[in-house]
Amino acid sequence: MSENSQVSPGRSKSPLRYIVMAVVAGVIACTGYFAFGGQQRVPDATFTLLSGQKISTSTDLKGKVYLINFWATDCETCMKEMPAMVDTYNRFKGRGLEFVAVAMKYDAPMYVTNYAQTRNLPFKVAMDDGSAAKQFGNVQLTPTTFVVDKDGKILKRYVGEPTFSELDALLDKALNAA
Protein backbone atom coordinates (compact mmCIF):
# COMPACT_ATOMS: atom_id res chain seq x y z
CA MET A 1 0.00 0.00 0.00
CA SER A 2 1.26 3.47 -0.76
CA GLU A 3 1.27 6.25 1.80
CA ASN A 4 -1.67 8.05 0.16
CA SER A 5 -3.95 5.02 0.06
CA GLN A 6 -3.76 4.16 3.74
CA VAL A 7 -6.90 4.44 5.83
CA SER A 8 -6.30 6.23 9.10
CA PRO A 9 -7.08 4.18 12.21
CA GLY A 10 -10.65 4.59 13.45
CA ARG A 11 -11.98 5.73 10.07
CA SER A 12 -13.44 2.66 8.42
CA LYS A 13 -14.93 2.96 4.96
CA SER A 14 -16.85 -0.27 5.47
CA PRO A 15 -20.61 -0.29 4.78
CA LEU A 16 -20.91 -2.31 7.99
CA ARG A 17 -20.54 0.95 9.92
CA TYR A 18 -23.67 2.35 8.25
CA ILE A 19 -25.60 -0.86 8.79
CA VAL A 20 -24.77 -0.82 12.50
CA MET A 21 -25.82 2.84 12.75
CA ALA A 22 -29.13 2.06 11.01
CA VAL A 23 -29.82 -0.88 13.33
CA VAL A 24 -29.06 1.24 16.42
CA ALA A 25 -31.37 4.01 15.15
CA GLY A 26 -34.10 1.43 14.51
CA VAL A 27 -33.76 -0.03 18.01
CA ILE A 28 -33.97 3.44 19.56
CA ALA A 29 -37.07 4.27 17.49
CA CYS A 30 -38.79 0.98 18.39
CA THR A 31 -37.95 1.41 22.07
CA GLY A 32 -39.50 4.88 22.07
CA TYR A 33 -42.57 3.65 20.21
CA PHE A 34 -43.22 0.80 22.63
CA ALA A 35 -42.29 2.80 25.73
CA PHE A 36 -45.14 5.17 24.93
CA GLY A 37 -47.44 2.37 23.79
CA GLY A 38 -47.50 3.81 20.28
CA GLN A 39 -50.25 6.13 21.46
CA GLN A 40 -50.65 9.61 20.11
CA ARG A 41 -52.72 12.41 21.50
CA VAL A 42 -55.83 13.34 19.58
CA PRO A 43 -55.38 16.61 17.67
CA ASP A 44 -57.32 19.71 18.66
CA ALA A 45 -59.93 19.56 15.90
CA THR A 46 -63.29 21.23 15.41
CA PHE A 47 -66.07 19.60 13.43
CA THR A 48 -69.08 21.32 11.87
CA LEU A 49 -72.15 19.12 12.27
CA LEU A 50 -74.90 19.00 9.65
CA SER A 51 -76.96 21.18 11.99
CA GLY A 52 -74.26 23.87 11.80
CA GLN A 53 -73.24 23.30 15.43
CA LYS A 54 -69.50 23.05 16.03
CA ILE A 55 -67.91 20.51 18.38
CA SER A 56 -64.30 20.28 19.43
CA THR A 57 -62.07 17.46 20.59
CA SER A 58 -60.48 19.77 23.16
CA THR A 59 -63.72 20.92 24.82
CA ASP A 60 -66.87 19.03 23.84
CA LEU A 61 -65.27 15.58 23.67
CA LYS A 62 -62.68 16.08 26.41
CA GLY A 63 -62.86 13.39 29.09
CA LYS A 64 -65.01 11.11 26.92
CA VAL A 65 -64.40 7.89 25.02
CA TYR A 66 -65.26 8.41 21.36
CA LEU A 67 -64.93 7.29 17.78
CA ILE A 68 -64.06 9.58 14.87
CA ASN A 69 -65.00 7.91 11.60
CA PHE A 70 -63.89 9.52 8.32
CA TRP A 71 -66.20 8.28 5.56
CA ALA A 72 -67.76 9.17 2.20
CA THR A 73 -71.07 8.41 0.54
CA ASP A 74 -69.28 7.06 -2.56
CA CYS A 75 -67.15 4.64 -0.51
CA GLU A 76 -68.44 1.06 -0.79
CA THR A 77 -66.64 -0.10 2.35
CA CYS A 78 -68.05 2.87 4.28
CA MET A 79 -71.58 1.96 3.21
CA LYS A 80 -70.97 -1.68 4.10
CA GLU A 81 -69.61 -0.89 7.59
CA MET A 82 -72.12 1.84 8.51
CA PRO A 83 -74.88 -0.49 9.83
CA ALA A 84 -72.30 -2.20 12.07
CA MET A 85 -71.06 1.23 13.22
CA VAL A 86 -74.66 2.13 14.12
CA ASP A 87 -75.00 -1.15 16.05
CA THR A 88 -71.70 -0.51 17.85
CA TYR A 89 -72.76 2.99 18.83
CA ASN A 90 -76.18 1.79 20.01
CA ARG A 91 -74.56 -0.92 22.18
CA PHE A 92 -72.13 1.48 23.87
CA LYS A 93 -73.87 4.88 23.95
CA GLY A 94 -75.52 4.08 27.27
CA ARG A 95 -72.05 3.71 28.77
CA GLY A 96 -70.94 7.12 27.49
CA LEU A 97 -69.57 6.45 24.00
CA GLU A 98 -69.58 9.46 21.67
CA PHE A 99 -69.34 9.10 17.89
CA VAL A 100 -68.66 11.62 15.15
CA ALA A 101 -68.97 10.47 11.53
CA VAL A 102 -66.93 12.96 9.49
CA ALA A 103 -67.76 13.13 5.78
CA MET A 104 -64.78 13.88 3.57
CA LYS A 105 -64.32 17.29 1.96
CA TYR A 106 -65.12 16.01 -1.53
CA ASP A 107 -68.48 14.56 -0.45
CA ALA A 108 -71.47 16.66 -1.51
CA PRO A 109 -73.31 18.00 1.58
CA MET A 110 -76.71 17.11 0.09
CA TYR A 111 -75.62 13.46 -0.30
CA VAL A 112 -74.31 13.34 3.27
CA THR A 113 -77.48 14.95 4.66
CA ASN A 114 -79.70 12.62 2.63
CA TYR A 115 -77.77 9.54 3.76
CA ALA A 116 -77.80 10.58 7.43
CA GLN A 117 -81.54 11.34 7.37
CA THR A 118 -82.73 8.31 5.39
CA ARG A 119 -80.62 5.93 7.53
CA ASN A 120 -81.54 7.71 10.80
CA LEU A 121 -77.89 7.81 11.86
CA PRO A 122 -78.06 8.08 15.66
CA PHE A 123 -74.70 9.80 16.13
CA LYS A 124 -73.22 13.15 15.20
CA VAL A 125 -72.50 13.66 11.49
CA ALA A 126 -70.09 16.36 10.36
CA MET A 127 -68.78 17.77 7.10
CA ASP A 128 -65.01 18.22 6.86
CA ASP A 129 -63.59 21.26 5.12
CA GLY A 130 -60.33 19.34 4.79
CA SER A 131 -58.78 20.57 8.02
CA ALA A 132 -59.89 17.67 10.25
CA ALA A 133 -58.59 15.01 7.86
CA LYS A 134 -55.29 16.88 7.74
CA GLN A 135 -55.11 17.20 11.55
CA PHE A 136 -55.73 13.47 11.95
CA GLY A 137 -52.64 12.56 9.95
CA ASN A 138 -53.74 13.56 6.45
CA VAL A 139 -56.52 10.97 6.20
CA GLN A 140 -57.13 10.11 2.55
CA LEU A 141 -58.49 6.58 2.65
CA THR A 142 -62.03 5.89 3.76
CA PRO A 143 -63.19 4.56 6.02
CA THR A 144 -60.63 5.53 8.65
CA THR A 145 -61.74 5.27 12.26
CA PHE A 146 -59.99 6.52 15.39
CA VAL A 147 -60.74 5.19 18.87
CA VAL A 148 -59.96 7.84 21.50
CA ASP A 149 -59.90 7.29 25.26
CA LYS A 150 -61.02 9.66 28.03
CA ASP A 151 -57.47 11.05 28.32
CA GLY A 152 -57.39 12.06 24.66
CA LYS A 153 -55.09 9.25 23.56
CA ILE A 154 -55.67 7.54 20.24
CA LEU A 155 -55.97 3.87 21.17
CA LYS A 156 -56.37 2.56 17.65
CA ARG A 157 -56.58 3.74 14.05
CA TYR A 158 -58.48 1.50 11.69
CA VAL A 159 -58.01 2.00 7.96
CA GLY A 160 -60.79 0.08 6.28
CA GLU A 161 -63.56 -1.77 8.05
CA PRO A 162 -62.58 -2.68 11.61
CA THR A 163 -62.82 -6.13 13.09
CA PHE A 164 -65.90 -5.39 15.17
CA SER A 165 -65.19 -7.97 17.88
CA GLU A 166 -61.80 -6.28 18.44
CA LEU A 167 -63.40 -2.83 18.36
CA ASP A 168 -66.02 -3.92 20.90
CA ALA A 169 -63.33 -5.26 23.26
CA LEU A 170 -61.32 -2.05 22.92
CA LEU A 171 -64.38 0.12 23.61
CA ASP A 172 -65.41 -2.06 26.54
CA LYS A 173 -61.96 -1.69 28.12
CA ALA A 174 -61.81 2.08 27.48
CA LEU A 175 -65.30 2.68 28.85
CA ASN A 176 -64.58 0.58 31.94
CA ALA A 177 -61.55 2.79 32.61
CA ALA A 178 -63.55 5.98 32.11
TrEMBL record:
<dbReference type="Pfam" id="PF08534">
    <property type="entry name" value="Redoxin"/>
</dbReference>
<feature type="domain" description="Thioredoxin">
    <location>
        <begin position="36"/>
        <end position="176"/>
    </location>
</feature>
<keyword id="KW-0812">Transmembrane</keyword>
<protein>
    <submittedName>
        <fullName>Thiol:disulfide interchange protein tlpA</fullName>
    </submittedName>
</protein>
<keyword id="KW-0472">Membrane</keyword>
<feature type="transmembrane region" description="Helical">
    <location>
        <begin position="16"/>
        <end position="36"/>
    </location>
</feature>
<dbReference type="InterPro" id="IPR013766">
    <property type="entry name" value="Thioredoxin_domain"/>
</dbReference>
<dbReference type="InterPro" id="IPR013740">
    <property type="entry name" value="Redoxin"/>
</dbReference>
<dbReference type="InterPro" id="IPR036249">
    <property type="entry name" value="Thioredoxin-like_sf"/>
</dbReference>
<keyword id="KW-1133">Transmembrane helix</keyword>
<dbReference type="GO" id="GO:0016491">
    <property type="term" value="F:oxidoreductase activity"/>
</dbReference>
<dbReference type="InterPro" id="IPR050553">
    <property type="entry name" value="Thioredoxin_ResA/DsbE_sf"/>
</dbReference>
